[in-house]
Amino acid sequence: MSKKIKTAFVCDQCGADYPRWGGQCTSCGEWNTIKEVRLGGAERNSRSAGYAGSRSEVKLLSDVNLSQAERIFSGISEFDRVLGGGIVCGSVVLIGGAPGAGKSTLLLQAIANIAARGVSVLYVSGEESLQQIAERAHRLKLPADKIMMLAETSVQRICDVLDEVKPQILVIDSIQVMHTQDTESAPGSVSQVRESASYLTQYAKKHDVSIFMVGHVTKDQSLAGPMTLSHIVDTQVMLGSTDDARFRVLRADKNRFGSVGELGFFAMDSTGLKEVKNPSAMFLNRPDKPSSGSVVTVLWEGTRPLLVEIQALVTECQYGNPRRLAVGFDQNRLAMLLAVLSRHGGIFTANDEIYANVVGGIKVTETSSDLAIVVGVVSSLRDKVIPHDVFFFGEIGLSGEIRPVANGHARLNDAAKHGFKKAVIPKANVPKKSIEGLEIHGVSTLSEALDILSEL
Question: Which residues does ATP bind (predicted)?
Fold first, then answer.
């Protein structure tokens, strides 16, 4: 009597399970993503020990060892910054990005620096041949005599090789092509990606091996595979490009060993990815002749300030329904700020179309840019040019008050280093000690900020 094959219906996008096939996934809303997969008999046992790879005894929280995790430095400071200060031994890092973003190039450069210091590394390629990787290393002028290479897609075979060579750093390129013998489905399926990542994570925790997994992205720039993949790994970073195709931005979306939202900046050239030591200068490449609607603000990304330009355009509505379009920040927040501007600033824009953009492709995730956005809208509406050496930051409340933001002193110091002469900021962020070369105007209401704008 043949053994009955167990099957399940799983969404390729979010990993939701269903008893039968359906056209649309009710969990993520995507269409035609529910696939039938075969379940292996050992699949349950492979997850029974947990992703940590071992069972632990019950302990009091006060008895847990608080020793600092050992880190390995890659020699690329922007890469180490995003990881939280270096590569934690035994950690699992998932790096995603669009095709051609430079994921493999960045990892190859990092492990070349690490291997040159005597740390053993192994690069496992499941997509490219070893010759292709060797040609890339030669083109990037990287030392290749200490990097161990392996072309393999079987997770069990990879772990057998790891037992033999015992590397400290392992690169898996990519996790979507890996497969485990315990799961009877095609490589790239939800169950294969989940089980392969779980198998490798267990090995990393047991043997204190740091693993980098390269992940593919879908057409909407989210990581391909089950959502469980993000929960398994310790750190998840995304490598993307800015509006200028020469530059790359590495962002930490999840990090158990550092801050989330940390950014690393790189420039792509013929010799690989180069660090951008001064990212603010990259985003402040403004024309010599200032124009209305352009204003500079200081964001706080991760652990450092970042000066960016915000542009606003106010034009007469050509049709019956005025448009409100925001690129780089929340469109609903733009609508809220326009309502506050109308109620507490006396400036009405209900009949105008308004477009706002954060230059350079940066995504604003904090509220410190509120004042700059409103000032940009007023500047465009009145055709008022803001001088290049003036910047604004501050959060705007619904009652028109200007609220303070975190790390105000560090933002001011960074702007002063870049040659800015005048700042309009929340009154609560005004430092007790003046900053040389910087004229600071503290405001507590939106009307005060608009008065200063009219005097510029």
Answer: 97-104
In this structure, is residue 127 part of a structural domain?
yes
Q: Is 270 in the same domain as 387?
A: no
436 and 314 in a single domain? The answer is: yes
Answer yes or no: is 52 a known binding residue: no
Question: Do 255 and 310 share a domain, yes or no?
Answer: no
Q: What is d(CA 26, CA 11) in angstroms, rounded to the nearest whole number? A: 10
Q: What is the pLDDT at residue 47?
A: 43
Instruction: Give the span between the Cα atoms of 172 and 309, in whole angstroms.
Output: 38
Rounded CA separation 158/55 (Å)? 23
- Is residue 391 domain-resident? yes
User: Which of 260, 276, 292 is the last residue in one of the domains?
Assistant: 276
Candidates 336, 440, 447, 456; CA nearest to 398 is 336
Give pLDDT tens digits for 279-335: 888 778 777 788 899 999 999 988 889 999 999 999 988 777 899 999 999 999 999
Domain coverage including residue 33: 6-39
84 is known to lie in a ligand binding site: no
Tokens of 348: 């009405």
Helix ranges, 149-278 (H) = 155-165, 190-207, 228-232
Instruction: Tell me whether residue 99 is annotated as binding.
Output: yes
22 annotated ligand binder: no
Count the domains in the chain. Answer: 3
57-86: per-residue pLDDT in tens? 788 888 877 777 789 999 999 999 999 999
Q: Using an 8 Å Cβ cutoff, are 6 and 39 in contact?
A: yes
pTM of the predicted model as reported, rounded to 2 decimal places: 0.79
At residue 30, the pLDDT reads 81
Q: Using the predicted structure, report yes or no on whether residue 41 has a pLDDT greater than 90.
A: no
CATH number of the structural domain spanning residue 234? 3.40.50.300
Question: Is 100 annotated as belonging to a binding site?
Answer: yes
Determine if residue 50 is labeled as part of a ligand binding site.
no
